[in-house]
Design a protein that fits this description.
By secondary structure, the chain is mostly helical. The chain has one domain. 82% of the residues lie in helices and 0% in strands. Helix 1 runs antiparallel to helix 2. The chain is flat, with a radius of gyration of 15 Å. It starts with a helix and ends with a helix. The model has no long low-confidence stretch (mean pLDDT 95).
Length: 106
């Protein structure tokens, strides 16, 4: 169950980073509230996950989910353009996240 909480925490990481962009520097109150709520939920689920998971595994996976998710959202929602080399590194990051999980033995 801890891994599920960690994935949820990572997804909320994507939520708050996306809504922070949409808040336009916290000038749009609704998106600012969504950012704060997303951040709080991300931290809450991370805190629950690291009760059972080692921090040395949970934290990089949490940030990796947030990073890869934010890249994907940036491309889809905001039209960010990434070079082929950047995509290679995003894929390597995803492979690293999966590798950390697989090699952890948890």
């Amino acid at each position: 169950m801890s891994w599920i909480y960690l994935i949820i925490a990572g997804l909320f990481e994507v939520v708050w980073s996306t809504t922070m962009k949409l808040s336009h520097g916290f000038s749009k109150i609704s998106f600012t509230i969504y950012t704060i709520v997303g951040l709080a939920l991300s931290m809450l689920f991370l805190a629950i996950a690291i009760k059972k998971l080692p921090m040395s595994l949970a934290y990089p996976i949490w940030t990796g989910i947030g990073a890869v998710g934010s890249v994907i959202i940036g491309v889809i929602l905001f039209g960010d353009k990434l070079s082929p080399l950047t995509w290679i590194f995003v894929v390597l990051l995803l492979i690293s996240i999966i590798g950390i999980k697989i090699s952890s033995g948890n």
